[in-house]
Amino acid sequence: MQADYPNGVLNDLNNVLRKEVRTWLKLPDSSMKVCFYESTGKGGLGLPQFSLNAPEARDNTLRRVA
C-alpha cells in the first residue's frame, strides 16, 4: 500500500520543525540535519522526519484497519 502524501508538504513540515527547534534551542543555522533526526542514544535530538515516517505510519494504520 502506498499513502498519498505530497512530498513537498512533508518536506515543508520537516523544514518548519527544524527551524522552530533551531530557534528554541538557539542553534546556529549551520547545524547539520543529521543532528535533528539521529536518535538520542546516538547524540541526536530524535525528531521525526515526516517525509520518511508519515507515509510508513499511514501504511501501517491502513493495514491494521483493513
TrEMBL record:
Domain of life: Eukaryota
Full protein name: Uncharacterized protein
Organism: Dreissena polymorpha (Zebra mussel)
